Amino acid sequence: MTSHVLLIRLAAPMQSWGIMSRFTRRDTHSRPTKSGVIGLCAAALGRERADDVRDLAAIRFGVRADRPGTPVRDYHTVGGGTYPLRPRDVITDYRRAAALAPKIDHLEGDTFGHQELTDWYGAPKYIAADPLSGVFVSGQLARKALITERWYLSDAAFVAALQHPDRAFLAGIADALEHPQRLLWLGRKCCPPSGTLAGPLREGAIEAAFAETALLPCSQAEDGAAPITRPWAWIEPEEGSTAGAPVHDQPVTFDPDRRSHTVRWETRTRITIVDNATEWDIIP
Q: 135-139, 172-176, 207-211: which has the minimum mean pLDDT?
């Protein structure tokens, strides 16, 4: 059976492909994950998170590291200090309004925050006056910040490959990537892609598509070293094979209530780019 391959350019100043993220530590894999790329395609096609993605998950996947990038750690804090209580906070959060009401029930008339406007509200949150300014603030005055550790790949460029026997199916994904119905990002919302995503659509297998497509223009080694000429690639074996190493990034569903992944297999290999390789046509 004839197969077709869609190549996808994944390049940006920052990208992050979590695979073992837990609590305050958000990691990134050294390369794009199948789950992340399939999620990218599903978003471009306009699918809801609870929609069936078995057709996308059945695609054979591969990724070529044209520029591996540099791991970058982001020292991130959440929730430290106090915050002035804005009118919007009281309007949208009944608990803040209920906590504030007894402190300002001396006000008369139809004044914002009057007791009459907040009688029906429920359990309070922490509301107190700042001892220095007297301004009402929400949150505990001595609240400590939550420190988190987030990792990214800086200045990386990858080529992902999707192999499927239905050319029209891949062509639909390619069109959606260039005219997405939802916002796209490379693993995390703060990492939007740059330039063209959808690359050449070829007949054959992933291995041949990688070898016959030139490296991305930004594929230069770090610190003035020689350019990368034989990039590493991680390729899913043909259906039914368990060759290579297991990777826990095969998507089952993106439904937030029952999101799950399972194990797939992949092999690691060097790619030798042919002399007459097809150049990329990238629109910034």
A: 135-139
pTM recorded for the entire structure: 0.76
- Whole-angstrom distance, CA of residue 29 vs CA of residue 160: 14
User: What is the pLDDT, as a whole number, of residue 106?
Assistant: 53
Q: Give burial (CB, 10 Å; 0-12/13-18/19+) of 281.
A: exposed
Better-predicted residue by pLDDT, 77 or 132: 77
Question: How many residues does the structure list for the chain?
Answer: 284
Contact 59, 166 (CB under 8 A): no
Of all residues in the chain, the percent with pLDDT exceeding 70 is 73
